[in-house]
Amino acid sequence: MESGLKEVIFTGRSNVGKSTLFSALLKVNVKKGKKPGTTIKPNVFKIGNLMFTDLPGFGYVKGVEREFNEKIKDFVVHYIEKNSDRIVCAVEVIDAKAFLEIVERLERRGYIPVEIEMFDFLNEFEFRVFVAANKMDKVDDSKLLDKIAEKLGIVGDWRNIIYPTSAKKGEVENLKRALKAHLGSLGIKGIGKAFRS
């Protein structure tokens, strides 16, 4: 591991707009597509000793063998475990519009949804976890973020954890401010260069 390297990871289910959010926050072009599973290896953006990593999307990808889906999920989990010492924060991206429907459908079947599983897993580490509730422009439920917080098991005020975004429309300022503030509080240099206007 490179000495002094600090890392911010972006993780989430396939097709939630993770790569689009990554691009909107950092003003970089990364491979992204309309089909789930486009990102099958990490996209990396590095400024000095600060690295941003867009991890492959996990969860069920239609038209892809189950074995491949499991392999991607295992890769993401192992990547986080292996690099946890340098990871300073994680952004779990969820599709705000589809989140409750997916979670409730899986809960009725007796499954733990991967979004909740990943949120719990990320919170086992020392680094800070942010949730980007993406695609908020497609949502008209004013209580949705409260409901998402409840499903994720967040007790109390969720506003320093969940950040509503609409990456396609470039509406990411609230999350950008929170990330900059967190990285600044850790004394990390190069933040201004990373989050270009």
Provide a descriptive summary of the structure in words.
With 197 residues, this protein is of the alpha/beta class. It has a single domain, classed as Rossmann fold, CATH 3.40.50. It has 7 helices and 6 strands; from the N terminus they run E-H-E-E-H-E-H-H-E-H-E-H-H. The protein has helices at residues 18-26, 66-83, 96-108, 114-122, 144-152, 173-185, 191-194, and strands at residues 6-12, 43-47, 50-54, 87-95, 128-134, 162-164. A hairpin with a 2-residue loop joins strand 2 and strand 3. The chain starts with 5 loop residues before the first strand and ends with a helix.
Number of helices: 7
> CATH top level?
Alpha Beta
Please give the order of strands in the largest beta sheet. 2-3-1-4-5-6
Mean pLDDT: 89
